[in-house]
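Our consortium's second objective concerns turning raw sequence data into structural hypotheses that experimental partners can test. To show how far this objective has progressed, the report includes one record in full. It was chosen at random from the queue rather than selected for favorable results. The single chain below, 467 residues long, was entered without modification.
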Amino acid sequence: MFIGRTKELNALEKLYKSDKFEFAVIYGRRRVGKTTLINQFLSDKKSIYYMGIESNEKQNLENLSKSIIEFSSGILVENSFASFQAAFEYVFQMAEKERIVLTIDEYPYVAHASKSLASTLQFLIDKYKDKSKLMLILCGSSMSYMEEHVLAYKAPLYGRRTAQMKILPFDFEESCCYSHNLSDEDKALIYGIVGGTPQYLLQMSDKLSVEENIKNTYLNPMSFLYEEPSNLLKQEVREPAIYTAIITAIATGYTRMSEISSKVGEDTNVCSNYIKNLMNLGIVKKETPYGEKVSKRSIYSIEDNMFYFWYRFVLENNSIIAQGATDLVYKRIEPQLSDYMGRVFEEICMQYLWKQLLTGKAPIKFVSLGRWWGTDPRQKSQAEIDIMGEQDSDSALFAECKWRIEKIDLDILETLINRSKLFHYTKVHYYLFSKSGFTKACIKRAEEMENVTLVCYTDIIREVQKC
């Protein structure tokens, strides 16, 4: 069953229907569904699909040749083309008569094996772009390679592409399509545990409880997810041990550069380079207080929920898990799940606000959303705002998100109102997001103010049920 990616499929279809030369670059992290997207697009089209392998130039050329020969119904006499240039030129020439899609999946593997491949493609694109109906797709999982050697200004292929797509994990709404049979609360928990990467969502059964899913995957040494983060790091970086130490530090609450450096035992300049790579991989993100482009108060957090869960709960319990003490480890995790979900719920609420904006339902037409933290000079204490977004210098929204059993009471609204006065907006709208609802006092005050929106988690779920 193919789920989501409607926007990407429509973009590819539009390129295909142009009936002229098109060159699309598709890239994104491993397991995010790039190949599945491409296969769905190619399902009803005349196409040559070739996946590169980590081997030498000869082996890759032979495999590409086989794909072209199969497409040509074996009419070629040769078993293999003499060179990549000969192979690609043959395809460009075939596409002068009819629309053909040529996909090179895992392009970085092929390019590493053949150093002149990019220049060869550049030459052939320039030669045939005005007379060939070829649609060329280059796809890769190494995001750094695709960005530096395909998309960058100095890359040989720069300026030749007609489209590019960075494939991202699904958001909460799309992720819920994988878990129809779960309870509303469990849908959020599953998203918090594995994020929106399709391959990880497929490891979760919507016929089992969250507890059973965690035990069957993260706490099972034979499961796909048990060593997935460490395996991914080994594929992407040269020194996985240091990266592991940095991710573990961030996942367990060491979020400032100085704290991370001290915890890992490396110089801040060294840590900075490693963190930059983790950011490029979509594992770590840098946050600054909303409205500050550069700040000494910047912090780092784990962007990918699967990595966040694994490094917070699984790594430290590896030895016990290996002994088969599944129940014992889960008993350690369970009391912390509600606190863990706090950050995840903020992410879900941000996605909800963006959907409200895009559908014209937002009272404040914000241009960005983020968290804010800093000093409240009135109280001489630290203060935080879960979400805020500015429309202009006069208008903004402020939001608080609570994933807990208790209903949100009036004190939470009053605190949010008080903290919003640290800023100087004349038009303000408040949002309270609650897993469990609101007290009568809170509801009454919100009705009196007329610039407060109370959103239960069930309201968010109601929006995603359209999936």
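The partners drew two points from this record. The chain has three domains: 6-166, 173-341, 343-464. The mean pLDDT is 94. Both points have been shared with the crystallography group to help prioritize constructs.
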